Write the structure tokens for this entry.
Amino acid sequence: MRIVVLAGGIGGARFLRGLKQAVGPDSEITVIGNTGDDIHLFGLKVCPDLDTVMYTLGGGIHEEQGWGRADESFSVKAEMKAYGVGPEWFGLGDKDFATHIVRTQMLGAGYPLSAVTEALCDRWQPGVRLLPMSDDRVETHVLTDIDGERKAVHFQEYWVRHHATIPAHAIIPVGAETAKPAPGVLEAIAEADVVILPPSNPVVSVGTILAVPGIRRAVAQAAAPVIGLSPIIGGAPVRGMADKVLEAVGVETSAAAVAKHYGSDLLDGWLVDESDAAAVAEVEAAGIPCRAVPLWMTDVDATTAMARAALAFAEAVR
Ligand code: GDP
Ligand code: FO1
Ligand code: CA
């Protein structure tokens, strides 16, 4: 079975771990990763969501934190600080730095991000084909107010530096409108047996991937059923700032509203948490088949059950 997953960082990566366990080695999983979170720091290109997927599936992730490397040290960061060179607010560890050095070196030598990602995955063997959504530079910015002035800041500055406590008036995926899907992205969607939108951020992860021209249409027109799993449970994100960025795009923070935001043209099925069973009727009234199942990724087995539910739902709506 060929499975395509449009993934952000932590939520996407954790779901993928369950999906891998649910399907075994015979299925081919292609992950289309969000690169809108990417940021250039210290002259290096950092790709948080691609790395989170790669480290999580490859066994290098800091499990509790959800991002960055396990057993990390921060000598380089401390040395940079001693030189007065920041930003101090972004936690890049020594092991993680090596990934960004390899990536930046290869990009400088002329390799596209998709080829660089493949090379990095040669080491980590994540057991999925990890494709960036695009080889072109896309950076999500947040329109906000700082010191009484309206201005746009990088998404990482909004989230990591300001912890999403400053207002988000608009979310702008800078560069998305002229970006091209990376090689293999549209083909994977067209040839898929099932397309899954995991419990990832619907605005700054999946929304950014869908903003790359051609990807949304490819998903909507895919022969395969498209099944989404709600990242919102009980009217709140399980973690992160999805409520803030949903509000910025005028969408209520509820499992039903996120389904309607994706739309019945995109989704063939939507899973909400069992505690949100009351939302099923609202989603189905919008023309989207909906079921309520447990959606807490508390451990790999619970996540595997979620992946199985998504695959079973795909069969039911096919
Ligand atoms: P990020 O890039 O690290 O923010 O990760 P993603 O975009 O892939 O996923 C973030 C989303 O996953 C957030 O909106 C969370 O609410 C959601 N999420 C995290 N853990 C869980 C979980 O256990 N269950 C569900 N349903 N959603 C989750
Ligand atoms: N998230 C934080 O909250 N603080 C950090 O200092 C931080 C550093 C960091 C470094 C590398 C990397 O791959 C991810 C990192 N993240 C950090 C996570 C990153 O900001 C994610 O994009 C967000 O969690 C939301 O998607
Ligand atoms: Ca992200």
User: Anything to note?
Assistant: Residues 300-317 form the longest helix (18 residues). The first strand starts at residue 2 and ends at 7.
